[in-house]
Amino acid sequence: MIIYRSRVLDTPDDPFTGGALRADDDAGIAVEAGVIVDRGGFRGVAERHPAAEVADLRDGVLLPGMVDTHVHYPQIRAIGGLGMPLLDWLDQCALPEECRLEDPGYARTVAREFLTGLASAGTTTALVFGSHFHDAVDALFAEAEQVGVRMTAGLVTSDHNLPEPLLSTPERSYKEGRDLADRWHGRGRLRYAVTPRFSYSTTPDMLASGAALMEDVPGLWFTSHMNENPAEIAAVAGLFPGSAHYLDTYHRHGLITERSVLAHNAHPTDAELTLLAGAGASVAHCPTSNSALASGSFPLRRHLDHGVRVALGTDVGAGSGFSLFKEGLQAYFMQQLLMGDGVPLTAAHLLHLATRAGAQALGLDDVGDLSVGRQFDAILVRPAAGQPLDVCLRQAATADNALAKIFSLGTAADVARVWIGGEAPVIPAAIPAG
Ligand code: GUN
Ligand code: ZN
């Protein structure tokens, strides 16, 4: 057993429904076999477990591991393509890079780069958009298993409206998805998600093949994009004249359940929000992506009013990096700029969106905060001495203010340690750029 002694901040009680930040200045968190078995003031915990080893982390702030509910593995090298709306950005930035993953060696290199980005930013759990290529997704799972990250991912499927190398057929997509799900779903910390790219690039037959896979393999997850950009939404309405709205293009195949995570939803109708809430499905809000592509401002108030579950995603590479601190801050900015229509977010809201809300969206009840019974998925924020975050943290008058400073200034460079199930992730060795 190890007792981690530190300042600890987490959000077991949802701040959107009256909960507050839980802040312990000198906590003891006792961990055995990767699970938190005791927690309280350090002295009390140490007295209850006199034989335990003590890890003194009082020089930092311990937070739960970050949860990224929407991030694209093949797009790490596409980060930074600014100045375009969604469909142009896909054509010019994302899709040419995604075509390169047809080469399995290239895909493995990118998988390592991607997992390095994820783990270095303090992301311990992620729902990952895979690649259109079976072998590239297989490589991602294999590398993720080595790193130790909790990952749900899948083969991205499309059968029209994309560059030819990215297209497949419903039959082939089923077969390849089935093979990947059989190999990886439920193995250690890995799970499989049926992942049609978006309704713009999938026919009803392709969506039906994803639904068939979900029927045939119990417990799979579902993820896709929805209501991101007005031109995309108009195009989808034209492609699916029989559907009531964008969500219905998925829902009519039975794809919207409590195991569904839809990215963006920046322009929903009330009917879609009602349907999402009733199904218990979640929305991955990706604020840096929505800002970079000028997709629109996320109507968080309407999601909350309808009771839709919302968490955060980085949406790398339309999003501008792997840090959930940056996404949290951008979510805050976006709501501020919505003036009276925005939700005034506190640092506790940002932490909840970046941790426990993500765990709940992914149905992972044993992660997301640092309570007894949870996995020890945690990060230590410890800025270098003299850096602005270090200076600011020393001045913080309250725990809420300290957390606001972390979201304002924190980067991967400040994430000094990461634990997943009590173990440090194995960050891949640097690979020469190829
Ligand atoms: N819609 C379909 N594909 C993508 C993608 O790769 N990124 C974003 N932001 N939206 C999408
Ligand atoms: Zn995306």
TrEMBL record:
Location of the Amidohydrolase-related domain: 61-423
Keyword Zinc: yes
Transmembrane segments: none
Molecular functions (GO terms): guanine deaminase activity; zinc ion binding
InterPro entries: Amidohydro-rel, Guanine_deaminase, Metal-dep_hydrolase_composite, Metal_Hydrolase, Metallo-dep_hydrolases
Cofactor note: Binds 1 zinc ion per subunit.
Catalyzed reactions: guanine + H2O + H(+) = xanthine + NH4(+)
Any one GO cellular component localisation term in the record: cytosol
Metabolic or biological pathway, per its Swiss-Prot or TrEMBL entry: Purine metabolism; guanine degradation; xanthine from guanine: step 1/1
Keywords of the record: Hydrolase, Metal-binding, Zinc
Cofactor field: Zn(2+)
Group of enzyme by EC: hydrolase
EC code: 3.5.4.3
BP-aspect Gene Ontology terms: guanine catabolic process
Keyword Hydrolase appears in the UniProt entry: yes
Family from the record: Belongs to the metallo-dependent hydrolases superfamily. ATZ/TRZ family.
Role of this protein: Catalyzes the hydrolytic deamination of guanine, producing xanthine and ammonia.
Protein name: Guanine deaminase
Organism annotation: Tsukamurella pseudospumae
